[in-house]
Amino acid sequence: MDKLRVLAADVGGTNIRAAWVDDLGNMGDERRIQADLSRDDVGEADLIRILADFFQAYLDDIPGIQAIGLGFPGFFLGDSGVLAASPNLPQLLDVALAEQLSNMLSLPVLVQNDALCAALGEQRFGAAKGEANLLHITLGTGVGGGLILHHQAYTGESGMAMEFGHLRVQTGVSARRCGCGGLGCVEAYASSTAIQAIYAELKGETLTTKVIYQRACEGDAVARRVFEEAGASLGQAIAEAVKLLDIHTLTISGGLLGAWDILHPALMQALNQHLISPLKGKVKVLPSTLNDAAGILGAAAMALAECD
Amino acid sequence: MDKLRVLAADVGGTNIRAAWVDDLGNMGDERRIQADLSRDDVGEADLIRILADFFQAYLDDIPGIQAIGLGFPGFFLGDSGVLAASPNLPQLLDVALAEQLSNMLSLPVLVQNDALCAALGEQRFGAAKGEANLLHITLGTGVGGGLILHHQAYTGESGMAMEFGHLRVQTGVSARRCGCGGLGCVEAYASSTAIQAIYAELKGETLTTKVIYQRACEGDAVARRVFEEAGASLGQAIAEAVKLLDIHTLTISGGLLGAWDILHPALMQALNQHLISPLKGKVKVLPSTLNDAAGILGAAAMALAECD
Q: Which of A147, A233, B38, B157 has a Cα at 20 to 30 A from A30?
């Protein structure tokens, strides 16, 4: 077949997901394997073997794949495809992931940070289609970010750019402690972990984010306030990023999008309150149109660009 | 004469300064004219005429100039040389400064934001010589910033990138009011204006920054604390920028460099306290080696690059 198709994959905490993607963003033949890549006995050879075996089996079954794109939770320098470090796999440093996989599979392999892949997905196929500059924020158990500048993935000097979740939005004694050890990070207010913890402190009940959101919709004022404050914290952190980067398009994906109707107005109010005057009103913050497919479609976008 | 020389100029609030610069960073034949470019009756034609007359007189007297570089307090989109807007001259919008001057003077003319010129100066001739990525901070009556990424001046989508002075370092009721109208901006703690205001509030005396620094050196604990808190605020704001940009080299210029021996340790302590773990210890913050010549040498760097 002549149609351009790539294999795109997304490595999560406990599973790896793959599908083919074509240049229109169509996906098919999705597969998942369970693979716990956060165990501390996973060595470099294990990681490469798990990925290569999974991809090879896919390639054996599905014809016409011309390149492979992979989103991985770790730090990558530029478009080198070298995993500099990964918080989940601290024992692995400077792993030439793309090069080793490419040699084993005899196809071009592109690898990038997972949040950055989500940004690339939104830019090629999603809410920010065609934008040259994009800050994409992932709202899940944590808060992550991926930045595209002048159509290029921006990784920083050590692959650790866009630690958006650790921007500070509160100072002083009442600031909440973040998982990173810092005080007042936006992740301590606007992640689902934070929403559950804050609600539990205020109401004495530990509930899922979804149930807290349902309560907010049913008139629970505390539940609503927790989401509004999450939105306001996000808006404040986005204002800081915009003051530095003068970037006008942001997209947001992740589980918390379910509460967009409460989050978004609070977010926009705080954003425009905290921006300097000439930037007020210039910034749009869009919900992802791809959501949990953003990462896999961004991995595909890298592979497709390699084939163009 | 064969040696490559450019005319470089820097527009300040009340005067314009120009000198020739060669490709080794030597400067000579410096001239200044008084010109109040913050008056609201200065039109586009006036601005162009003032600059063109000053440059033409210089070119008539000094032979061998091959291009002109200009640092200007305003917002420029990319390397277009178009002044999008200027806080000092709000009546002027979208002025094709570089193009008009180039047509009148029959030489290439490059124009860029003044803080960004200072960054370019430090990168070509100063403390950050040869760095691909640099965040330069100017500490004067206000706090400004200029960013270089991958050897390119970064201006953002509307020329307003690096509003570093308006990053928030304090939230809550005790946060200080900034000149921009916001609360808790780093400029409200770490500019010379702020240092004078804070010292006056604490001690009831309005003194120059220089005298406050002398008092700090002579054992005035309040004076010392004001500089230490300015340094800590700067370190905190730098941490925010580094968390987003993963940039490892910063330079600082401006009048407050005179207090570097107090500012720098406080700054580095706060910076490393607020950075996420993997970035701690990776970031160097250097005093400018060019100081008030940084802007003019950066303007020269743009013009020299045009001739290369």
A: A147
